[in-house]
């Protein structure tokens, strides 16, 4: 009898122990800069989807949601494949991306490129999962992976947090095969500790509609690929900010193995680029492209062996340290190690940041180890 009681007590303790140790993923930290104050799903009871259909339903419904991702959600084959014509504007080698003739892109913009009669790709990647307002999407550890399909926030949605997930494998062979994260006509969006990899087109894109206030922080843009527009394993289509009235804080991000658009900034975008780290950038490529209409304050960034930190400078860029009148502090110098020139003297951009400037550190060398999924 005594042995039976001891065994029973031991079994009860074993059953109780896991319950006591369970810790659900919760939002870590708070958004800095332009998206400060974002709450996402707030105090809503957390839900944990177990299928791709359930994930889509939670992301797109009208309820405030805290959505926990604790597994990989593979959309690759969820909508079947389609076959279409295309072209090869950048070459026909095995490492070259091919372009799908989406909206007659090949016909209108690359009429002289070699034609490709048949491209078969996964339909799921072309359009991202619709994310509605008041959502928090957060991964547990390194388990929150969305494969084969991106996320899309558009048509006036707002107040969304995306943290600690990995978006990957969206038709990487094909330009126009799909984007990783799209914001186009949204507001108050925080993307944090997110990794993107193996994307056909843009890893992160803010489209031409106003995207309001956005913070992208502590994230990893991994351009490592077997297919690229430069045919050299460096992804070109990295980050694109083209909104008509966007305010973007881009802080603590790690951009690597890319050849361009890291980021490309235009439209009417106000961008605070602070404490980011660019490394292993294609020696024949570049980091920034700054088109007309862009207002950029860049401080505390590290360019490690980047031959061309900026290729085009048609917008306004300030990289100096005389910021006290606008920010109440000095701006932090950028660190250019074995890199080309990165200089901008447009002090008039400073007034755009006076109320929403994120803090800046002098040293961004730790960013490669702290950015991306599983780092919080």
UniProtKB/TrEMBL annotation:
It catalyses: Eliminative cleavage of (1->4)-alpha-D-galacturonan methyl ester to give oligosaccharides with 4-deoxy-6-O-methyl-alpha-D-galact-4-enuronosyl groups at their non-reducing ends. The keyword DNA damage does not apply. It is found in: Secreted. Residues 1-16 form the signal peptide. InterPro entries: Pec_lyase, Pectin_lyas_fold, Pectin_lyase_fold/virulence, PEL. GO terms for molecular function: pectate lyase activity; pectin lyase activity. GO terms for biological process: polysaccharide catabolic process. SUPFAM superfamilies: Pectin lyase-like. Residues 99-309 form the Pectate lyase domain. Its main location: secreted. Keywords: Lyase, Secreted, Signal. GO terms for cellular component: extracellular region. Its EC number is 4.2.2.10. Belongs to the polysaccharide lyase 1 family. This is pectin lyase. It comes from Karstenula rhodostoma CBS 690.94.
């Amino acid at each position: 009898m005594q042995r039976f009681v001891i065994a029973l007590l031991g079994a009860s303790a074993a059953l109780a122990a896991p319950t006591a140790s369970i810790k659900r993923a919760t939002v870590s930290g708070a958004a800095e800069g332009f998206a400060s104050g974002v709450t996402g799903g707030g105090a809503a009871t957390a839900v944990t989807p177990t299928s791709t259909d359930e994930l889509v339903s939670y992301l797109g419904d009208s309820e405030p949601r805290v959505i926990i991702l604790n597994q990989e959600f593979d959309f690759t084959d969820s909508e079947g494949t389609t076959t279409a014509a295309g072209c090869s504007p950048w070459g026909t080698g095995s490492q070259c991306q091919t372009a799908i003739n989406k909206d007659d892109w090949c016909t209108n913009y690359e009429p002289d490129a070699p034609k490709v009669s048949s491209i078969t790709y996964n339909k799921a990647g072309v359009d991202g999962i619709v994310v509605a307002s008041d959502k928090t999407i957060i991964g547990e550890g390194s388990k929150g992976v969305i494969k084969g399909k991106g996320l899309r926030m558009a048509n006036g949605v707002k107040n969304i947090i995306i943290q600690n997930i990995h978006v990957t494998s969206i038709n990487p062979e094909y330009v126009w095969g799909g984007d990783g994260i799209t914001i186009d006509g949204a507001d108050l969006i925080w993307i944090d500790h997110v990794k993107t990899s193996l994307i056909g087109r843009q890893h992160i894109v803010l489209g031409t509609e106003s995207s309001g206030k956005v913070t992208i922080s502590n994230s990893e843009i991994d351009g490592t690929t077997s297919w690229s527009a430069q045919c050299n394993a460096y992804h070109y289509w990295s980050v694109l900010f083209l909104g008509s009235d966007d305010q973007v804080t881009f802080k603590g991000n790690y951009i690597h193995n890319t050849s361009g658009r890291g980021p490309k900034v235009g439209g009417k975008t106000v961008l605070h680029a602070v404490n980011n780290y660019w490394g292993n950038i294609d020696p024949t490529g570049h980091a920034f492209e700054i088109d007309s209409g862009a207002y950029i304050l860049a401080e505390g960034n590290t360019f490690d062996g980047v031959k061309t930190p900026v290729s085009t400078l048609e917008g306004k860029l300030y990289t100096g340290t005389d910021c006290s009148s606008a920010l109440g502090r000095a701006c932090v110098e950028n660190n250019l190690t074995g890199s080309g020139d990165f200089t901008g003297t447009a002090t008039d951009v400073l007034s755009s940041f006076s109320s929403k400037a994120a803090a800046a550190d002098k040293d961004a060398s730790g960013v490669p180890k702290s950015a991306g999924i599983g780092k919080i």
